[in-house]
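Structure (tokenized):
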């Protein structure tokens, strides 16, 4: 249905590049418009769980992805204030058929960009779109300086501040969740295990895992606060303020925080899942459709799933059926994932008797029924959109 068709993608992030590759491999003529002058070392770490790995495999990128990433072998929960282990789930033992990959974001972007160019995708870098206007034939993309062009099928993969989303849904106002986050990279000491560690504390938690062959450790730290004004994910932060916020943490967490020299800092805002993911000759993918808070590490994975399902629908069905079918296949699952992520954040921030009871239950579950504990999220990790 899309062979030879011209398709424009707004945004050169993971969702935009993945959908560009998926469409180009199906014969479409794809153009990616990205406001950054180069696709470079923006961001830090991200986790690609088995449901995301399935999409990379289907795009023919599985072997390269596995070579670039650290293979996650376990998930470890620690009491941040004591440093003691609460529970450790051995993925290699209890889920040997599942692949968990820890990526530097730039490495995954580079992999997808290379695949996109090899598939014939054209890029317009340094192209900032200031306004999207619906026309009788499609959409007009307007940039600073009066430059504009008309496109037919348009895919919005342009994130939280998508120019396409308000055209399809109207203006919306996000709300502050009462949480802020820091992100940093620190040098590894060389003996860190290939596992994701969640350090849990009162009204705050920190996640750490290795990147780039174990040479770096990615840190994401989240704390509750009452007010915040700016929304963004790459504001300059103060390492001292980060350490002060987590000064009650001990053990491995404190050792990592002591190494932080540069850190980004941002407020976590909740955007509603878009009511409409599509319009006349347009569709949204990734954060443009459903911004996802980082409490189950599913933002990149949901974008990868969106990319595959949208391309598959456009290939199989006429446009009038393909776009509604895409939303129907994706929206319920994404809403459930986001709700589960929000619940995870609350569970990490317990204190007092609730914390003691929860940690005791985790220790018991990890010791007596680790496979059962892991299976709670089978509906996320074992879901494979490429088999649909």
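Design, position by position:
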């Amino acid at each position: 249905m899309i062979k030879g068709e011209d398709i424009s993608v707004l945004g050169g992030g993971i969702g935009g590049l993945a959908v560009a590759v998926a469409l180009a491999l199906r014969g479409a003529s794809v153009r990616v418009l990205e406001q950054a002058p180069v696709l470079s070392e923006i961001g830090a770490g991200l986790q690609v769980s088995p449901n995301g790995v399935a999409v990379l495999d289907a795009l023919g990128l599985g072997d390269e992805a596995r070579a670039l990433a650290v293979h996650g072998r376990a998930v470890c929960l620690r009491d941040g204030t004591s440093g003691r282990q609460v529970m450790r789930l051995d993925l290699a033992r209890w889920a040997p058929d599942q692949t968990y990959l820890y990526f530097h974001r730039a490495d995954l972007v580079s992999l997808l960009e290379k695949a996109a160019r090899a598939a014939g995708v054209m890029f317009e870098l340094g192209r900032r779109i200031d306004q999207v206007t619906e026309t009788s034939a499609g959409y007009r993309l307007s940039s600073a300086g009066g430059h504009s062009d008309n496109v037919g099928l348009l895919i919005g993969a342009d994130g939280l501040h998508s120019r396409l989303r308000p055209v399809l849904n109207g203006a919306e106002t996000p709300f502050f969740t009462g949480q802020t986050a820091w992100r940093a990279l620190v040098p590894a000491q060389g003996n860190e295990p290939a596992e994701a560690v969640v350090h849990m504390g009162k009204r705050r938690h920190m996640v750490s895992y290795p990147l780039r062959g174990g040479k770096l450790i990615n840190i994401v730290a989240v704390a509750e606060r009452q007010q915040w004004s700016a929304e963004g994910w790459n504001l300059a932060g103060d390492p001292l303020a980060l350490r002060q916020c987590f000064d009650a943490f001990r053990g491995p967490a404190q050792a990592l925080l002591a190494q932080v020299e540069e850190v980004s800092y941002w407020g976590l805002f909740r955007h509603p899942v878009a009511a409409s993911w599509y319009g006349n000759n347009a569709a949204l993918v990734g954060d443009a459709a459903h911004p996802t808070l980082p409490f189950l590490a599913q933002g990149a994975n949901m974008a990868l799933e969106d990319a595959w399902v949208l391309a598959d629908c456009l290939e199989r069905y006429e446009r009038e059926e393909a776009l509604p079918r895409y939303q129907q296949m994706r929206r319920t699952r994404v809403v459930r994932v986001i709700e589960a992520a929000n619940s995870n954040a609350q569970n990490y921030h317990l204190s007092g008797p609730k914390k003691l009871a929860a940690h005791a239950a985790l220790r018991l579950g990890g010791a007596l029924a680790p496979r059962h504990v892991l299976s709670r999220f089978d509906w996320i990790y074992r879901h494979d959109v490429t088999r649909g």
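Reviewer-requested clarification: The mean pLDDT is 93. Residues 176 and 269 are 4 Å apart (CA to CA).
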